[in-house]
Write a structure and sequence with these properties.
The chain is an alpha+beta fold. It is 35% helix and 23% strand.
């Protein structure tokens, strides 16, 4: 589920009739001071609250909420918060708001009840931190998916709080508005904690958390959600590149999320993780963590992905600096043809001149062929690449990975642009455009190329007479990017310099160039 920041959620609440504190987002300490001065001018020097905009609970306990009045104090708090990291990711903004005078707090939440297959509103006559532990004091208000919460249940909830008739009516109206706000953006959940009653008798949404159904994101471009997935941090530049790669190729699934940018204390190092299948990937991540490593990213390529998708995933994983190794392991019972994944990995490892160890478990159909491809490619690299099968337990290969990392004597990965074969750089080859890339063929080497690849191309690249692409329409040829990638790798393994496919990953090389 895609998340929104507090300030974004409050804008949705305001559009649906809720009162919210006056506020402004700031990404610098100067902007924070300017916002505070505006509030102070209207309230004759009143306090402001400064809150980090980060997807975490208990912001106050980590120093992410502060009250201040003097400009110097406001500047200091804002500067400190904007230098914070939540987990391993930086805080990019703070929300400056006028301080409100609170008389009483309430908890109000909309969610989808999967068991009932219907929306539900959860209400409590008290808010703030620790509400989860006070579950006995909450009420569940059933909702009709079209018409919202039941009027009788709303009335009972409002009447249970000991409010005046006017205040109870306001509270009941707020409960109805919550459903309208959630429905307006197809929210999966919408929480106001706390909804406060101010000392002048107004109900105000003092905080807000919203998650949007992933499938609804495309219908709501006004929300500005970049990636329709649930992260615990705003999307990083590398996650944006990965998401774009997935959107451009729907053959199988590619999921990429960054987890850490530096190894934990006492860790054996930062590891690039490449899984295949959710359950098996989780088990494999546990194995590598138990072996003493910090996982830099979670990546999943499953559902019968193309070789080119696996290649792009591997390139993106290796855009992360300071990795001590590359660990790949998935379900072990996948129905997909594992040799396609092996070809994608092999191409990426050669192009980037891999110099850190890699351990890859490709269990499932054609696993023997996949392991053989990795074994042969390992001989062309500066670091060992070892392939394993479904019968090899993740814990065992994690132990082997640890041994290889020790043997590498502290080598850490430095991201780099892919190398190009000499015949391409010399511009002596014929270039043919293909799906999201281009193929380079040295036609003078065609007889050697054919011998190297014909058994692996499935008859799709070489016709029966031995002529290149003569039996294919142009559209068919251009869409054979995975088969062409396999030809590229087989030529490389056979020592034939004359066939190369270049696959685009928009934004990746620029990102690596900025980091170097």
């Amino acid at each position: 589920m895609a998340r929104l920041h507090e300030y974004q959620g409050k804008a949705i609440l305001a559009a649906n009739g809720f009162k919210i504190p006056r506020g402004r987002v700031a990404s610098t300490a100067d902007q924070a001071v300017a916002a505070a001065k505006e509030f102070a001018a209207d309230k004759k020097g009143g306090e402001v609250v400064i809150k980090i905009q980060a997807w975490t609970t208990e912001r106050a306990s980590i120093g992410g909420v502060a009250f201040a009045k003097k400009p110097d104090d406001i500047r200091a708090h804002a500067a400190r918060m904007l230098a914070m990291k939540v987990g391993q990711f930086p805080v990019e903004a703070v929300l400056m708001e006028e301080k409100i005078d609170i008389e009483r707090e309430f908890f109000l939440s909309f969610a989808i009840d999967d068991a009932a297959r219907a929306p539900v509103i959860i209400f409590a006559g008290g808010g703030g931190s620790g509400i989860e532990e006070r579950a006995a004091s909450t009420r569940r208000i059933p909702c009709d998916v079209k018409h919202g919460p039941l009027d009788s249940a709303v009335g009972e909830a409002a009447a249970s709080c000991g409010l005046s008739p006017a205040q109870a009516a306001q509270l009941a109206e707020s409960i109805q508005k919550l459903f309208a706000a959630a429905r307006s953006v197809e929210a999966r959940s919408l929480e106001i904690n706390p909804l406060v009653l101010t000392k002048d008798g107004q109900f105000v949404a003092a905080d807000c958390r919203i998650t949007i159904d992933d499938y609804a994101v495309a219908r709501h471009p006004e929300l500005g959600i970049e990636i329709a997935r649930e992260f615990d941090h705003p999307p990083t530049a590398l996650e944006r590149v990965a998401y774009a790669a997935e959107q451009n190729d729907h053959r199988g699934t590619f999921y990429f999320a960054q987890l850490a940018t530096a190894a934990a204390k006492d860790s054996k190092g930062l590891v690039g993780f490449h899984g295949a299948g959710g359950g098996g990937s989780m088990m494999s991540m546990d194995a590598i963590v138990n072996a003493g490593f910090t996982i830099a990213n979670f990546t999943d390529t499953s559902g019968n992905p193309s070789a080119s998708k696996v290649y792009r995933a591997s390139r993106i994983i290796l855009a992360q600096p300071d990795l001590v190794g590359y660990f790949g392991s998935g379900s072990g019972v996948a129905s997909q043809e594992q040799y396609w994944s092996a070809y994608g990995l092999a191409k990426a490892f050669w192009e980037l001149d891999l110099d850190i160890p890699a351990v890859i478990r490709l269990g499932g159909n054609t696993e023997d062929r996949a392991v053989d491809i990795l074994r042969r490619m390992s001989g062309l690299l500066r670091a060992p690449v070892e392939g394993y099968r479904k019968t090899d337990a993740p814990a065992m290969i994690a132990e082997r990975f640890a041994e290889l990392v020790v043997s590498a004597s502290g080598t850490k990965w430095k991201p780099r642009a892919p190398r190009m074969p000499k015949f391409v750089k010399d511009k002596s080859a014929t270039m043919l455009p293909v799906k999201s890339g281009r193929v380079w063929i040295d036609t003078s080497e065609w007889s050697r190329i054919r011998a190297a690849v014909e058994t692996h191309s499935g008859g799709l690249i070489v016709d029966r007479a031995g002529a290149p692409v003569a039996s294919l329409s142009w559209e068919e040829f251009a869409n054979k990017d995975s088969e062409l990638l396999a030809c590229d790798v087989e030529c490389r393994l056979a020592g034939v310099e004359g066939f190369h496919i270049e696959l685009d990953i928009p934004g990746l090389d620029e990102l690596i160039g900025e980091a170097r």
